[in-house]
Structures are given as structure tokens and as C-alpha cells.
Write a structure and sequence with these properties.
The chain is an alpha/beta fold. It has 16 helices and 16 strands. The chain has a five-stranded antiparallel sheet with strand order 5-6-7-9-8. It has a four-stranded parallel sheet with strand order 4-3-10-11, with helices on both faces. A three-stranded mixed sheet has the order 13-12-14. Strand 8 and strand 9 form a beta hairpin. The chain is globular, with a radius of gyration of 24 Å. The structure holds adenosine monophosphate and zinc ion. Adenosine monophosphate binds next to helix 1 and strand 10.
């Protein structure tokens, strides 16, 4: 089996050869912990979990280090904690708690390390001082900025035309920038905002920019150069481009990670998910109505690089499939490992750039084989072992049945009443109340669609 992965750096599907087969190293950008994760955030979590499982099977369970960070210092966190009137620590702990519960319910293995940005400030300072010492960064008005023209091949990941990058960077022009594309490594913290002693002899307290956090955490846990770096497609520019610039310039290396993988975006019932549109659904709200395994199967039914249109119909279809598969395997245990030919067939399909839709099509075929009246329990065990490689059928049929939730009857009149109250609150410009009502609806799994003419339509997100 040859593992081939699509690499955003080379724009081609290449054979994967780790630097060190006894320690295969994977880094994935994790959540900024200020709010419940939405179903789009579940996509990198699930897809890189499948990659983690495949790497463990290929190189050995102890030969893979998977790092997924927690961004617990960010201006969005500060703003949200202030809004809610709670401490930053309370907010980040609460959000992390929910994120961990979400990922568990989605059937994901815990990563090998979940580093927190606030525990890696020393590494960030070391990197920043190195960048300044080598002429790649400079201090200006309490800030430290990365000087983009100091890196001749800056932009090689996103391959954006220079004009585009300059236009993008103009969004935050600051008088102290030497070049419009220069980006922040460190900035001063005013009173009341979290801060740490600054690098480079800057007297004021300060806090890191977002990009330097990932360079520091990947360095500490995976080294200067590692194998695979992942995240959603929106992170290619500027986040990943800037991580590459920082790490390569700090260490004088030609690569930060040899393979860069990016998942496509998820849209909700055909529309971009957005808080301002109100069509935004959290993993938690979906888990109220569906076992996480249904969300996982629905997610994996589309290839990770394609966009997903997330629909209730798709989850319903996944639920029916799982119901059938659990009926077939009953309470048989799974047979896992190289000796299981079904598992190898699934591994072969996943080895082709994590082709999960092809693996699922093949599982349907294997299900038929295992379902045959003549089938021995060995075939059922093999089928279950094959599904386990995708993180599916990890329970017994009895556990699955016990977990199934009764369909939630939706009281349409009560929903309309809440929607009317929200419209009235918005008219009265009481946005806090309007948001609170929206949260209440979302927590019941209701997806709101605000229309241009001021009306709101709704659907149950299931
Ligand atoms: P954030 O907390 O916004 O930084 O996002 C965490 C992860 O989720 C990143 O890898 C994003 O690229 C990814 N992500 C955010 N929104 C979506 C979406 N709608 N579809 C797929 N991935 C997403
Ligand atoms: Zn990152």
C-alpha cells in the first residue's frame, strides 16, 4: 500500500514518505476557544482523525505524533469574556470542555498532544528574538513585525499574485509597518488585556499574534521540520503562509512541513454558514438530535477537498446506513489488523488521498457480503474491523440502540413565537435580547434564515 496525499505546496498528489518512519509527525490548527464549535469546525477534526488512524495503521500506533493546538489567547476571546462578564480563563476552560466533548462524541481519538498557546509564550519569545536577530523582523512602537520582503520566496504556498497579497494586507495598515505586507508577531497589551513580558527588550507587557503561536507549538512538540500540516482551506493565506515564513526564517530551513493538507468548506443547506445570517449550527445542537457517528458518516461521505453541502437529508441517510450496519454486526467484536483483508481493502482506498467516499462505497459492498445468511460471524467481525478504520461501528448494536434518541417533536407554534419576539427585539435595536433568542432557537436545533425583506424562515437542523 502506497500512501498518496494531495499537497497544497506542490499542487499534486505525491507519495508520502515520512522523514522518520518511527516518528511520523502531524500538526493541525485547532480551535480558538471562545464559542461552541460549529459543524464546519468538525470537518478538519474528523478528516485528520481518519488520517491519524490510517498513519497509525501504516507506521504503528506508537510511531505517530498528532498535535492539535488550542488557541487560548486571541482578541476574540478577550472580547467575548468581557461581553459575558466572565474571566478569560473561565471562558477558555468552558469552551475547551465543550470542544473535547464534541470531538469525543464525533468518535475522534484524542491527539497525542493538545498544546495551549498560553503555555508556549517562552517559545514564542525565543522565535521572535531569533527573527529580529537575523533581520527578518523588527521592533516598532511596542510591536514586533515580520518583514515580508526579507523572505524572497514568501507566498509559495498560496501562490497568490503579489498585488493580491498587498491588497489583503492593506486591511490593517499601520503607520509603523515598513512594508504593507508585514505582519504582527507581538503587540502591546493595554490594561485589562492578558499580557506577558515582551521580547526584544520592549518594556511594555504584550501578547503574541496568532500565527506565531502555531510556529512555536509545532516547534516544541514536533521539531523544526515535520511531515504533515493540516487545516481548513481558509487558513492557507495568510495563516499558513505566515507560519511557514516564521518557522523557515527562524530555523534557516527550506521547509516547515513537507506536506500541507487543506479541507474544503462546509455550507449549510446550500448557504455559507455565518453568524450574521443566523444560519449557523453548532456540533452540540446537532448532537441533541443525532448520535455523533451519524454526523461523522455524513461528513466522510464527501471527499475532504470538495465542498460539502450539509443537509438534514444527508444526516438522515447516514443514520439509516448505520442502523443497517449495526443490525448486521450485532454484538460481534471487531477484527482489526493486517490479517483482516476487509480492513486492508478500506486502507487501500484511504491511501488514495483519504478517499473516504470510495471507502464508504466499499463498506456498503462488504456489508452485503457480511449480511448474507450464509455468512459466518468471522465476516461480520471483519466488516466491523474495516469500518473501525474510519472510526465507524465502534460500538455494539446494543449500545447503538440504547443511544438512539427519540425524534424530537418540534412545537412549531412555540418556535414562531420566539422568532416573532426576536424580530421585535431587533426592531427595538435590543440586539442582546435578539441574540439571546437566536441562541435559544439554535440550541433547539433550529436554523434561522433571515431574508432581505425582513422576514425569517426556519428549519430544523436534522
Ligand atoms: P477557526 O476556529 O475559525 O480558526 O476554525 C477552526 C478550524 O475549522 C480551521 O481549520 C478552519 O479552517 C476550519 N473551518 C472553519 N469553518 C469551516 C467550514 N465552514 N468548513 C470547513 N472547515 C471550516
Ligand atoms: Zn495554525
Amino acid at each position: 500500500m502506497e500512501l498518496r496525499l494531495y499537497n497544497t505546496l506542490t499542487r499534486s498528489k505525491d507519495a508520502f514518505r515520512p522523514y522518520d518512519a518511527s516518528n511520523v509527525r502531524l500538526y493541525v490548527c485547532g480551535p480558538t476557544v471562545y464559542d461552541l464549535a460549529h459543524i464546519g469546525n468538525a470537518r478538519p477534526v474528523v478528516i485528520f482523525d481518519v488520517l491519524f488512524r490510517l498513519l497509525r495503521r501504516t507506521f504503528g500506533a506508537h510511531a505517530v505524533t498528532y498535535v492539535r493546538n488550542i488557541t487560548d489567547v486571541d482578541d476574540k476571546i478577550n472580547a467575548r469574556a468581557a461581553d459575558r462578564g466572565i474571566s478569560i480563563r473561565e471562558l477558555t476552560e468552558e469552551t475547551y470542555h465543550w470542544f473535547r466533548a464534541d470531538t469525543q462524541d464525533l468518535g475522534c481519538l484524542p491527539p497525542s498532544v493538545e498544546p495551549r498557546a498560553t503555555e508556549h509564550i517562552d517559545e514564542m519569545r525565543v522565535l521572535i528574538e531569533r527573527l529580529v536577530a537575523s533581520g527578518h523582523a523588527y521592533v516598532a512602537e511596542g510591536h514586533v513585525l515580520f518583514h515580508v520582503p526579507s523572505m524572497p520566496d514568501y507566498g509559495s504556498l498560496s501562490r497568490r499574485p503579489l498585488d493580491d497579497m498587498i491588497a489583503g494586507a492593506r486591511v490593517d495598515v499601520a503607520p509603523y509597518k515598513r512594508d504593507p505586507m508585514d505582519f504582527v508577531l507581538w503587540k502591546p497589551s493595554p490594561e485589562g488585556v492578558p499580557g506577558w513580558p515582551s521580547p526584544c527588550g520592549i518594556p511594555e507587557r504584550g501578547r503574541p499574534g496568532w500565527h506565531i503561536e502555531c510556529s512555536a507549538m509545532s516547534w516544541r512538540h514536533l521539531g523544526e521540520t515535520f511531515d504533515i500540516h493540516g487545516g481548513g482551506i481558509d487558513l492557507v493565506f495568510p495563516h499558513h503562509e505566515n507560519e511557514i515564513a516564521q518557522s523557515r526564517c527562524a530555523f534557516g530551513t527550506n521547509v516547515m512541513a513537507q506536506v500541507w493538507m487543506h479541507n474544503g468548506f462546509l455550507t449549510l443547506e446550500g448557504e455559507k454558514m455565518s453568524k450574521s445570517l443566523g444560519n449557523f449550527v453548532t456540533i452540540r445542537a446537532l448532537l441533541e438530535d443525532w448520535p455523533g457517528e451519524c454526523l461523522r458518516l455524513a461528513m466522510l461521505s464527501t471527499h475532504y477537498r470538495q465542498p460539502i453541502n450539509w443537509t438534514r437529508q444527508g444526516i438522515g441517510f447516514a443514520a439509516k446506513t448505520l442502523d443497517k450496519w449495526y443490525r448486521i454486526v450485532g454484538d460481534e467484536p471487531a477484527e482489526t489488523g493486517e490479517g483482516n483483508p476487509f480492513e486492508s481493502e478500506i486502507a487501500d482506498r484511504l491511501a488514495d488521498d483519504i478517499n473516504s467516499p470510495s471507502a464508504i462505497t466499499h463498506l456498503h459492498h462488504l456489508a452485503e457480503v457480511a449480511e448474507d445468511v450464509e455468512s459466518s460471524s468471522a465476516l461480520k467481525r471483519r466488516f466491523k474491523g474495516a469500518a473501525n478504520l474510519l472510526g465507524l461501528l465502534t460500538e455494539t448494536e446494543s449500545e447503538w440502540r440504547a443511544r438512539q434518541r427519540a425524534a424530537v417533536a418540534v412545537d412549531a407554534a412555540a418556535i414562531e413565537e420566539l422568532i416573532d419576539a426576536r424580530i421585535a427585539a431587533r426592531k427595538a435595536r435590543d440586539f442582546a435580547r435578539a441574540d439571546q433568542l437566536r441562541e435559544q432557537l439554535v440550541s433547539q436545533g433550529i436554523v434561522l434564515m433571515d431574508n432581505k425583506d425582513g422576514t425569517t424562515s426556519w428549519e430544523v437542523a436534522r
